[in-house]
Amino acid sequence: MWSRLKYSVYIYIYIYTPQTKPSHLLSAHSLQEFSLLFSMQLCALLTVLGLLVTGSWAQGLMPTVGLPPCDSPEAEAAALAAQDFLNAQHTHGYKYVLNQIDEIKIVSRPLQADTYHLELDFLETTCHVLDPTPVSLCPVRQKINTAVEADCDFVLANTTQGLSVVAFKCKTETESEDKCLGCPQLVPLNDTDGLQLIETSLDYFNKNNTLNTKFALLEIGRMGSQIVSGGHRYFAEYAIIGTNCTSQDDDICIPQNHNVAIHGLCLAEGSADGVDCKIFAPTQASNATVQVQQLLHAHTFGPQHNPAIHGLKHHKLTALHDPSASGLLSAESNELAEVVAAPKDAPVVKREVAAPEVPAVDATESEKAPLPSGPILFAPICPGKKKHF
C-alpha cells in the first residue's frame, strides 16, 4: 500500500508501506527489514528537504538585475553624477557634457548598495577645465571644428549618502564633417608654424593686457590650420597662467601656484594681434568635487618649453590608474592608459535618484479617448535620446 505525503514545497514524497500481518504476528526479521526501509526513506526525505532549504537560501543571495529605460529620471541622475565625476578627474583640456545614455543596468544584492552599470556618450565642450562656467552652459564643439566624443563605462554605488563612482574607463575619438573642403583641420601640437603663432600672440597679449601680469603658457589645447586665399591660416587654443612678473618685466618668471594664480584661455587666429583671451579669476578646484593630482604643467618659451607634455593628440582624457583588479568593467571601452578607478574615498555626488513621474490623467478625458486599433508599438527603452548630435 502506498501512502502519499504532500509538503508545502510542492514536492510529493512517496513512502512504501508493505502489506503486513498484525504486529504480534511479525517476526523479528520482518521488523528489522521494515525499520531499515523506513530509515532509508526518511534519510532520503531529509536530504531532499535540506537541498530545498539550501537552494532557497542561496537563491535569496543571488543578485537581481533591473533594466530601467535609458531616458528615465533614475538613469539621468546616475549619468549626471558620472558626468560631474569625469569633469572633476579631468585636469587638462576641456569639459565634457553628456550626450546619450547607451545602456544601464542596476544590480541589487541583499545587504549591499545597489550598483549602477552605465555605458555613456559624452561630447567635448569649448570650456576649459579651469573655466568656472557650469558645464550645462558650455557650448558643445561642433563637427565642423572637429568634435570629440568620449565613450565611457561607469560603475556607481547608490548608498544612503547618494551616488558615488566606483570605477570608470573611457576612450575618445574625433568626429568631423564629411567632404568639408576648406574646413579647419587639426595639426599636431608640435607644429612649427602653430607654435610660432602661440609664442607671438602670447607676447602680444602680455604687452597689451590691463591686468599688469605677465602670463606663461600652461598647455596647448588645440592647434589647426585652414586653407584660405592667401595660403594656410593657423589658429591655436591655449591655456595661460599668471606668473610672479608684471607685464613690463623681462626677467625669468615663475608661474604662480594654481590655487592663487590667474588663469585664462586664449584663441589666436592668423597673426599675433588676432588673439583673444578669456581670463578666469583665481578659484580653488572650480570644477572639482574631489582633490585630484594636478597634471597641469607650465613652461615659458625656452629650453624648458615642451609643447608635447600631454602628447600630440588633441583629445586624450586624463590618464590616472589602472583598476583592472576591480573586475567591474568589461573590455569594450579599452584605450591605453585611459582606464581609471575611483579612489577609495571617492566623492559622493549629491544626486538623489528620482522616482518615475506618473502624469495625472483626467478621468473624463480618459473615458473619451479612443482605444488604439491594430498593433501597439513600444518605444525602445535603450539607447536613450541624443541631446546634441
From TrEMBL:
Subcellular location: Secreted
Major localization listed first in the record, in broad terms: secreted
GO cellular component assignments: blood microparticle; extracellular matrix
InterPro entries to which the protein is assigned, alphabetical: Cystatin_dom (IPR000010), Cystatin_Fetuin_A (IPR025760), Cystatin_sf (IPR046350), Kininogen_Fetuin_HRG (IPR050735), Prot_inh_fetuin_CS (IPR001363)
Domain Cystatin fetuin-A-type: 65-173, 178-295
Keyword annotations: Disulfide bond, Glycoprotein, Membrane, Repeat, Secreted, Signal, Transmembrane, Transmembrane helix
Matching Pfam families: Cystatin
Regions that span the bilayer: 34-53
GO molecular function: cysteine-type endopeptidase inhibitor activity
PANTHER family: ALPHA-2-HS-GLYCOPROTEIN, FETUIN
Record-given protein name: Cystatin fetuin-A-type domain-containing protein
Annotated source species: Onychostoma macrolepis
Taxonomic classification: Eukaryota, Metazoa, Chordata, Craniata, Vertebrata
